[in-house]
Design goal:
- This protein is mostly helical.
- The chain has two domains: 41 residues; 214 residues, no CATH class.
- The protein is 74% helix and 0% strand.
- It is built from eight helices and no strands.
- The longest helix has 66 residues.
- It is rod-shaped.
- 15% of the residues are buried.
Length: 298
């Protein structure tokens, strides 16, 4: 996005006005000169050379404008493509998290581990001597409370993570939609003026800025509280649960790392697009092809 802003400033700094005004003024003066007059003829030849020079300057400026506008479009599409990837990853992550809440396999496993922990504890206690009924009831009560607390922590943490992914997904989707709309306007106009390009490219800049400036996502972790004396067990099980969740999410991300190699890879999704993908993300950002048509010094 910083590169987009820099190139847009470069594009907007291109001055078409001065050479155009000079050409208009010179041609007006040329129309008043008499080529049969020797003094006028010298002046006429000089003015024509200067007009030709300014016209060449305008042609160079137009080429630079076209190259810069194309590169700005490529940067926009590169960002857009990555936002689509983020959308897909968020969708897959949400499915995983919802599945965890429905099946509760890991949650039940953690609860069973707690029960096993206290069973082993009671066995150790029995080796040291008899245990009272009251102590046994206390242990049962603690296990029941801890089981409910683990379930609550699991539910709260998964819910918080799901909300975060939903927020990122919705924000990315909104930005992609805005980019697609503006890019469709750029591609859809058969006859474009520099002013049309300027307005649309500046609007895209505003959208890209909003991608970051409107990024206000929060992930608030539920505070660990327990009615028992076993807060350390809750902390341990929470860490185990989060490690498991993040491993599942990372596995999904790794499994999708090469998804653009498939035959069903994403096509450029805009209202006016009929043909194949414009260019692959690799080609758009590769060092070899990226600046093929862009010559800032020309």
């Amino acid at each position: 996005m910083e590169q987009y802003k820099y190139l847009l400033r470069t594009l907007l700094a291109l001055d078409f006005k001065k050479p155009a005004v000079f050409i208009q003024s010179a041609e007006k003066e040329i129309s008043t000169l008499n080529p049969n007059n020797q003094d006028h003829a010298v002046r006429l030849a000089r003015l024509r050379d200067m007009v030709d020079s300014r016209k060449e300057t305008l042609r160079t400026l137009k080429r630079r404008w076209t190259a810069l506008a194309e590169e700005l479009s490529n940067i926009t599409l590169y960002i857009r493509d990555n936002l689509v990837k983020i959308e897909k990853l968020c969708e897959a992550s949400i499915v995983i998290l919802v599945d965890l809440q429905i099946k509760r396999k890991k949650e039940n496993q953690l609860i069973e581990e707690i029960k096993t922990h206290f069973k082993e504890h009671l066995k150790d206690s029995l080796h040291q001597g008899p245990i009272t009924k009251q102590y046994l009831e206390t242990v049962k009560k603690d296990v029941s409370i801890l089981s409910k607390e683990v379930s609550a922590i699991f539910r709260d943490d998964v819910f918080a993570l799901t909300g975060l992914y939903e927020a990122i997904h919705d924000h990315s989707k909104k930005i992609v939609h805005e980019i697609d709309t503006l890019m469709a306007n750029i591609k859809g106009k058969k006859e474009k003026s520099f002013e049309d390009d300027r307005v649309l490219l500046e609007q895209i800049e505003q959208v890209l800025v909003s991608l970051i400036s409107n990024f206000h996502f929060e992930l608030t972790a539920a505070e660990i509280r327990t009615e028992t004396a076993y807060k350390d067990i809750l902390l341990e099980k929470r860490k185990e649960m989060l490690d498991y969740v993040f491993e599942l999410l990372h596995k999904e991300r790794r499994s999708r790392s090469n998804r653009r190699k498939g035959e069903d890879r994403r096509r450029f999704d805009d209202p006016n697009h009929k043909g194949p993908e414009r260019r692959s993300g690799k080609d758009r950002r590769s060092k070899k092809n990226r600046r093929k048509s862009l010559n800032l010094s020309s």
